[in-house]
């Protein structure tokens, strides 16, 4: 089934201790939609300015990503610039130019409204809620968020949460949201705020998944070198939601376990190059090879 | 088969943000031997002073831990005092009194020398080497270490490593030892220093295991509350080594995977109370229940 993805579409400038690149194709929806497109048809919702390259529309088309919901308006595309510390684990935002994003009002084409699966990639929770309101009872809603919204628009986030089936956030955001140092307490605490399932991303340490009396923990794919962590979280969310939309009719905890692994696999490719470069031309063989590696690296009861 | 355990036996004072207790039974060998005793007979090597309570010898006896190699000499037992930060993730040593430990020269009773499995729990690497020299070709040698030895007696540690089959250390120690930020690079780098296998403990994030082209990653048991992290690493090492000694004739990577889970299970009990309190009276049912929980929390290809 199709997955509706809404989020930011951006042109990024990224500086790591080793390299700096500008005018990079980025944004939460770009990463998420591309990752998801390996598993299911995608209907993209977003906004770009007149400076946005037509080549990316061609790329989306090549990946069967429907762009009927992408508005192209007068002005400049949303721009973000960030710099990573020496260990690539922390980053500072150098600048954010909202540009056309400032007045973004998501409008769903009629053909989008019946999508059964929705990924509300990282944007303001009020916008995420306004997308949901235009939809006809989706079966499964995944939402991503970030520290900015926890700190500045908490009421909007709290309004959204009961309408979310799976909330994805990272470890520091989970701690911030609950004021708990234990991630186990944090994950369980966030479930009480509304979402049936909560996934906590821990970067190099993998991810945790919380359900009703259910728990899943996975490691990260063992990469020696990371080139650019930008978009890894968005890619994780896109891989998870795409796998669910493309494979499952009714989501159970068992499906979410596999979805976490596929999200982790896609994220492992994402960080191997700047922008979406590594995600543009993957094959299902490459994806499944890493999925199998996850099996090998996590099993301790070998079936012989 | 029997496991020889050598390390420190101590009386600890531990302060957490919530509680403070003194005269606690502790030390790397005490934790490791107790954890191991759930899986195999243990032959303990260490030293205590005349202030050391006879009740602990009785406890060892009750757990079938052979104390023929524990010297009791005139003077005070080794004492350590530490204080944990609010999140229990970092600690400061407040004081260390070597006392009788200062002149400790491990002497293996004749009955110890043929042990097939050895755990060199955390003590100075020169002492660890002197224990190995008294042994007749053990099949499998596990060693634990700490930042102190990496910083102050690195040459001794480097001499020991080629004689070690499995080195266990924590994430910050692995990074310090190799000057690598990536734990994947660190784990692989340490193997080149001698040990066939390397286990990196990551506290709440679980543990990683490196072999020749083999890799295993596991999470930590999901505990909401931790009361005292002291000894968790020693317990992990003891659980791993004990499981191997008690279950396996010839160690393969498959056995090490299971051993990591048993080590994690024992460590999860350890941190639930101060000192060794939670480790004194476990049942195999309790241990196996958590082992099963590890299976459930890490599988994503369900066999139905």
Topology:
Two copies of one chain form a homodimer.
Chain A: E1 3-6, E2 10-15, E3 20-26, H1 28-36, E4 42-48, H2 54-62, E5 65-72, E6 79-84, E7 91-97, E8 117-120, H3 125-133, E9 140-144, H4 147-152, H5 154-160, E10 166-170, H6 171-178, H7 183-191, E11 197-201, E12 207-211, E13 214-218, H8 232-247, H9 253-270, H10 284-298
Parallel strand pairs in A: 1-4, 1-8, 2-6, 4-5, 8-9, 9-10, 10-11
Antiparallel strand pairs in A: 2-3, 6-7, 11-12, 12-13
Helix pairs in contact in A: 1-8, 3-5, 6-7, 8-9, 9-10
Q: Report the sheet-strand fraction of chain A.
A: 15-25%
Assembly type of the chains comes to homodimer
- Please identify the structural class of chain A as seen in this structure: alpha/beta
Number of separate strands of chain A? 13
**What is the typical, i.e. mean, pLDDT of chain A?**
96
Largest interface: A-B, 40 and 40 residues
Shape of chain A: globular
- How are the strands ordered across the major sheet of chain A? 5-4-1-8-9-10-11-12-13
Major sheet summary line of chain A: 9 strands, mixed
The CATH homologous superfamily of chain A is named Ribokinase
Distance between the termini of chain A: 36 Å
Query: Which regions of chain A contain 5 or more consecutive residues with pLDDT less than 50?
Result: none
CATH class of chain A: Alpha Beta
Share in helix of chain A: 25-40%
Task: Return Rg of chain A in Å.
Answer: 18 Å
